[in-house]
Design a protein that fits this description.
It is built from ten helices and ten strands. It is an alpha/beta fold. Strand 1 and strand 2 form a beta hairpin. Helix 3 packs across helix 4 and helix 9 runs parallel beside helix 10.
Length: 309
């Protein structure tokens, strides 16, 4: 009888581990490609972050209707995500934008602190996209929440020193953004570590494109990053975060003009599931999600594939 040859790869590297929250949540530490138990014996399901906004003015009604009015209060919204089974919260402080409500750094910091205290979950904190205001806001947030390790988002090659300094001062993590470029992803980690940030305080965001918006390219970049890390590239041995809420920006996913396309909520839920599962299959350690139904499916699938149940 012919022996079946082994198909497992032998890697000489592994993904670093990051500690989140109050030390009770961890991500990373993979020793092989995702969901291949014969290569990667670690039965750790990737984490799922539920999205929360502090201003829902432009938030899709289709998504808002899923939260029973609790989306109007960010603290209640975050608590609902915890009750639904999310592992962490991704808080977007978009109201701090000077073109919106121009919420003060102090008020934003107080909000993050309340969510941290009420949920006990790790939090990834995102600014409004206005660099100067984001530094002010995230500095206040970092100073206010010192008993839980936050992920401060985000730094890029043009401006990484200010936020990195803030994160290091209070033992938080930084999210290094690279726009679908494996070389830039590596360069960001080199810049951060040269500046003094420990690799255990860095997470990568290589930019996750949704299904129908370049998902195949994102998958390829993620996979190349993970394989390079496992094959010994120390500067890529950092856990990855993929934001899968971009699925809600695909017109075919949410369009309700054509009845033949079916229920838009059902459609966008599956759209987000496919985007998130692709992210996980290609190496993501944390995915950010908008829909509770999509989150639940991804959690179940990931637990089954990981063997964590």
């Amino acid at each position: 009888m012919t022996d079946i040859p082994t198909v497992s790869e032998k890697y000489n590297g592994e993904i670093g581990e990051v500690v989140l929250g109050k030390g009770d949540y961890r991500a990373g530490n993979a020793k092989g490609m995702p969901f291949l138990s014969f290569e990667n014996p670690l039965k750790r399901r990737p984490m799922i972050a539920g999205e929360v906004l502090d201003d829902i003015t432009d938030y899709p009604k289709l998504a808002a209707d899923m939260f029973d009015g609790r989306e109007k209060d960010p603290v209640e919204w975050a608590l609902m995500w915890k009750q639904l089974g999310a592992d962490m919260i991704c808080l977007r402080l978009i109201s701090t934008d000077p073109g919106r409500e121009n919420t003060s750094p102090e008020d934003s910091a107080a909000l993050v602190k309340r969510i941290s205290e009420k949920t006990g979950l790790p939090i990834m904190v995102c600014g409004c996209g206005v660099p100067e205001k984001d530094i002010e806001t995230l500095t206040a947030v970092s100073n206010a929440v010192r008993d839980s390790r936050l992920i401060l988002s985000k730094v890029d090659e043009s401006d990484y020193k200010r936020l990195s300094t803030v994160a290091m001062a209070n033992n938080h993590l930084v999210l290094a953004f690279s726009n679908l470029d494996i070389n830039l992803a590596k360069q960001m980690n080199i810049l951060l570590t040269d500046f003094g940030v420990q690799k255990s305080d860095i997470m990568m965001d290589p930019l996750m494109a949704a299904l129908g918006m370049g998902l195949d390219y994102s998958y390829s970049v993620n996979e190349r990053i993970r394989l390079a890390a496992l094959n010994g590239d120390r500067m890529l041995q950092v856990p990855m975060i993929c934001d899968c809420t971009s699925a809600w920006s695909v017109s075919d996913a949410t369009n309700d003009d054509d009845p033949s396309m079916g229920d838009p909520l059902h459609r966008v839920t599956w759209w987000e599931v496919m985007t998130a599962m692709s992210a996980l299959m290609s190496g993501a350690d944390i995915v950010i999600m908008r829909g509770p139904g999509a989150m639940d499916m991804v959690k179940v699938y990931a637990e089954e594939l990981t063997g964590a149940i």
